[in-house]
Amino acid sequence: MLTKKEFSEKIGLRIKQLRKTKNISQAELGRICLKDRQHIELIENNKVSANVYTLYLISLALRVEVDELFKFEELD
User: Fold this and answer.
1) Residue 53: how many other CB atoms lie within 10 Å
2) Distance between CA atoms of 18 and 75, rounded to whole angstroms?
3) Which residue among 24, 25, 66, 70 is buried most deeply as judged by most CB within 10 Å?
4) Percent of the chain predicted with pLDDT > 70
5) Domains and CATH numbers, the chain
6) Cα distance between residue 60 and residue 63, in whole Å
7) The dihedral of CA 15, 69, 29, 31: what is its sign?
């Protein structure tokens, strides 16, 4: 079982991985999600935890199902 910190770290890394794969900047992702670039950066670097609705918005912006954000095996 992951700790809350480990879980948030993996979510942030997964978002960053998917964003880069789709060639989307933090600023663009933030704009689509109605968040600023700094908020996306904070999520990706595990400085803040994203709430469920923000994860939903991020998944829509990345054009992936929400469960894609939780596929941590893709990080290895």
Assistant:
1) 9
2) 10
3) 24
4) 99
5) 4-68 (1.10.260.40)
6) 5
7) negative
Q: How far apart are CA 47 and CA 45, in angstroms?
A: 6
Residue 47 vs residues 8, 21, 22, 31, 40: alpha-carbon distances, Å: 9, 22, 23, 19, 10
| Tokens found for residue 23 | 């060639």
Contact 26, 40 (CB under 8 A): yes
CB proximity list for 51: less than 8 A, separation 6 or greater: none
8 A C-beta contact, residue 50 and residue 40: no
35-47 pLDDT, tens digit per residue, is 999 999 999 999 9
